[in-house]
User: What shape does this take?
Amino acid sequence: MSPESLIERIGAELARREARRAEPGAYDVEAAVTLLLRPAAAGLKFLAIKRTEQERDPWSGHMALPGGRRDDDDASLWATAVRETREEVGVDLEKVGRLVGQLDDVVPGTRRIPAIAITPFVVAVQPDVVTRTSTEVEYAVWVPLEVVVDEEHRGTLQLDVLSDREFPTIEYGGHVIWGLTLRILGQLEEVLSRIGYTGRG
Assistant: This one.
């Protein structure tokens, strides 16, 4: 399956049903992130970022997807996604992006994180797109899409503050993805499963 046809099939599968939104008014903050898909010689890659260490950021130092909180001036959550992606990684989706579809909103499962509803958008970008990270981002990395469905890249993480729990992870090249970002990728994994994508061949 070519990268272009895979993107088309992902879009068709996402269009089969309307994405579930968080209950209106139930969360203090709205936010949007972008799951960027870029064609490559060996298939598709998605963009992950490592957030810089910041004292007031509950996701400080985490692997994440480009995005952030909705501003009052944003006409929509898609506008938030476009603005935040441009600010954080220098990719102008209005010029080099194509909206493929929308995933279900995700919300924190712990009170340690602000009451926030995050809307994920799946976006295809051109193969030659270049990232330029802001001060909010330590680095950006293009990750092969097959790690989303490959059990060999699965692991677990223990936190000092919650030492009695283990959190599932995706691990690639020393990068560890977990939490809300992993839940978003889990939705993509379900889509890939429904269209028969195994990451092989």
Summary: The mean pLDDT is 90. Strands lie at 29-40, 43-51, 63-64, 67-69, 97-102, 116-125, 137-144, 154-159, 162-172, 175-178.
